[in-house]
Amino acid sequence: MPFTFDIDARIMDTIIGDMFFHPDGHAGMSHTNALRLFKCNDNANGYKVTRDNSLQFGLIVDLIAAGLSFRQVESVLNAFKARTGLAKIGCINDTRIADNARTLCGINMQMISQILNSPYTWAFSLANDGSTHYGHSYFDNRIRIHRNGDIFNLHILAIPIFEQHTSDNMCNLISGVLDILCPMWRSKILGVGSDGAPAMTGCIQGVVTQLEQQAEHQIYCVWCGLHQLDLIMKGAYEELFDGEFIKTMNAVVIHLRVQNNLIANMGQTTCPKLTTRWVVMGVVCD
Predict the structure, then answer these.
(1) What is the mean pLDDT of residues 176-200?
(2) Which of 108, 167, 199, 245 could serve as 240's disulfide partner, Cβ 3.0–4.6 Å?
């Protein structure tokens, strides 16, 4: 059976229609395909999104949640359909799966907005972290809330970063999202967690500092234990061989990335960028 879900105009226009896409990509094919999924409501105060096949939508959501890529979801569902003869799963391709993923983002943000704005949610804490995945920069955001005796850890959004990773840019991104999802967030925010990077923790312009200044009361600031371990490992690598290890590794990586002939011989594969994440160092060494 089909289903229809209503989404606020600001979530659709600003987050999905604007933040998700590079400014140069607005009005492009991907941007147009994303927006066509959402139709204006009759009252023009929001949008509605309709999925014709709720079974297919649910299966796609489950497989994406399990960590499968869009093409892997396509392969698994088509194989399942062929083995079982379950025709009501419908036609499946990676484009349709992407459409369902965009629909899910809109639905999730609308539901999170309703939770945050509920009078039963009197406070929430925020966790932020900037990261790079496959060459694309994101500012990841999670919220923790207490409802009916349980604490929930919800992922809001990994906001694409198309500008420099400055504290001002990251603060504007998260505050802009919160202004849309929960206009009263300044009175409801209880704590902020982050790593120990200067852009996050700077006492003057850090993201946490700026969020703390916007809050209407004092808040708790928490530095993630794993990120503190990250800083310790980073310092250990920097001291290795009297500081020559990082310096030499960085020089080797830069050298490999600029060797066009080597890159061509490797099948258009570039050497991974050297990062400050100790987890990635093993990949770089390999």
Answers:
(1) 85
(2) 245
- How far is the C-alpha of 91 from the C-alpha of 27, rounded, in Å? 27
Q: Structure tokens of 53? A: 């096949």
Instruction: Write the pLDDT tens digit of every residue in 143-185.
Output: 999 888 888 888 888 888 887 777 888 888 888 899 999 999 9
Query: DSSP H helical segments within the chain, as ranges?
Result: 9-10, 29-35, 54-65, 70-84, 94-117, 167-181, 185-188, 198-201, 207-214, 225-239, 244-257, 260-265, 278-285
Q: Give the percent of the chain with pLDDT over 90.
A: 15
- The residues, any chain, with a CB within 8 Å of residue 191's CB and separated by 6 or more, are 125, 126, 219, 220, 221, 222
List the helix and strand counts (H, then E) for the chain: 13, 8
- Tokens describing residue 220: 């708790």
Structural domains for the chain: 3-115 (no CATH), 122-222 (3.30.420.40), 228-285 (no CATH)
**Is residue 281 predicted with pLDDT exceeding 60?**
no
Give dist(CA 202, CA 45) in Å, integer.
Answer: 40
Supply the pLDDT for residue 271: 59
What CA–CA distance (Å, rounded) separates 286 from 277? Answer: 15
Give the pLDDT score at 284.
46
How much is the mean pLDDT over the chain? 81
41 Cα distance to chain centroid: 27
How far apart are alpha carbons 95 and 90 in whole angstroms?
14
Q: Phi and psi dihedrals of 83, rounded to 5?
A: -70, -35
Question: How far apart (Å, rounded) are the C-alpha atoms in residues 26 and 8?
Answer: 20
